[in-house]
Amino acid sequence: MKKKNCIVLGGTANHAFAVACVLMDLKKYCSDWLEQVVYFHDGLDEEQQKLLNKIFPTKCVQYEFPISDISVFWGNPAFAYFSRMVFCKYECFKLLDDYSCVIWLDYDIVIKQDLRELVDYCESGIKFSGRQGKVESQFFMPIDEYDMKYPVSVSGCIFALQEHLGDYLAMRDYCYEFIKKYGKILKNGEQGAFDCLIQKSQLNVHILDPKAFSLHPNNPEGHSAAKIIHAYGQPKFWNGLENEQWNSNYETWINMGGQRKSETISFYEERDFRIYQISNNKVVLNSDILKDKIVIFGTGDQGSNVNKLLKVHGINACYWVDNNKTLQGNFKDGLEIISLEKSLTIPDIKYIIAVFSPKVLTEIFNQLREANIAEENLLSVFIL
Question: pTM score, two decimals?
Answer without folding.
Answer: 0.75
